[in-house]
Amino acid sequence: MVAFAVALARATLVPSPASVSMTHTNLHPGSSIRLYFDQPDWRDTVKQVGGNIVLGVPFGFLLPVLFPRTRGLVRVVLMTALVMLTVETAQGLLVTGRAFDIDDVILNSAGAFLGYLVLGRRLGRALHPRRVRWWHPRRPEPVVAEERPAGLWRRKRSADSASGAEKPVASDTDQATTSKRARWTLPASLRAKRP
Q1: Per-residue pLDDT tens for 8-44?
Q2: Of the candidates 95, 115, 120, which has an alpha carbon nearest to the alpha carbon of residue 9?
Q3: Alpha carbons 155 and 187: distance in angstroms, whole number
């Protein structure tokens, strides 16, 4: 983050006296981008447009990692836009040879958008698990079957069959809710207690 802050300051806040005659304030979204694409040299276009997008990419993955409350695509883009508006205002008011350009803010925010989609979302979720809020649906806890020794069931069944005692007949609701396999493996006294 410190290295990125230094790089951002050097790229945006270093005076450029040679550019004073070429700089102008731009408050109309899209006009500077059109000028960039109308240039005959495509390398200048890539440098201007691509450089502004690349400058915003680190915001996309650093913000969710360092500030968990800024997780989410909209929050990351808005926070980037706010920081870059501050930088552009400082450029326009304080730095020689630099001017405020709303298109730079748009391109930087687009870079943050890409950075968040590529890496920031995964990093943010890996380092800061999502908190369960009261409005999130709760998952039911898995029901763990109680383990019983197999020998007890065999002895009980064999004792019932040896004594010749009749098993109680299960009710219709019991038969509807229990599976065929469960009726044959559970004693009748336990089947009657099953919900």
Answers
A1: 888 888 877 766 666 778 888 988 888 888 888 888 8
A2: 95
A3: 11
Fill in the amino acid letter for 123: L
Residue 97 Ramachandran class (φ > 0 left, ψ -120 to 50 alpha, else beta): left
pTM: 0.63
Find all residues with CB under 8 Å of 152, minimum gap 6, and list them.
Answer: none
Condensed to tens digits (0 to 9), the pLDDT of residues 67-96 reads: 888 888 999 999 999 999 999 998 888 888
Is residue 111 within 8 A of residue 55, CB to CB? The reply is yes
49: nearest Cα among 99, 111, 7: 111
Model confidence over 87-137: pLDDT tens digits? Answer: 999 888 888 878 899 999 999 999 999 999 999 988 888 888 776 667 767
Q: Which two tokens stand for residue 69?
A: 């409350």
Q: Could you tell me the CA-to-CA distances from 155 to 147, 158, 160, 185, 191 in Å, in that order?
A: 16, 5, 9, 12, 17
Q: Which residues does 63 contact at the CB level (< 8 Å), separation at least 6? A: 70, 75, 76, 79, 80, 112, 116, 120
CB of 101 within 8 A of CB of 85?
A: no
Residue reference for tokens 């044959």: 184
Q: At 13, list the tokens.
A: 């806040």
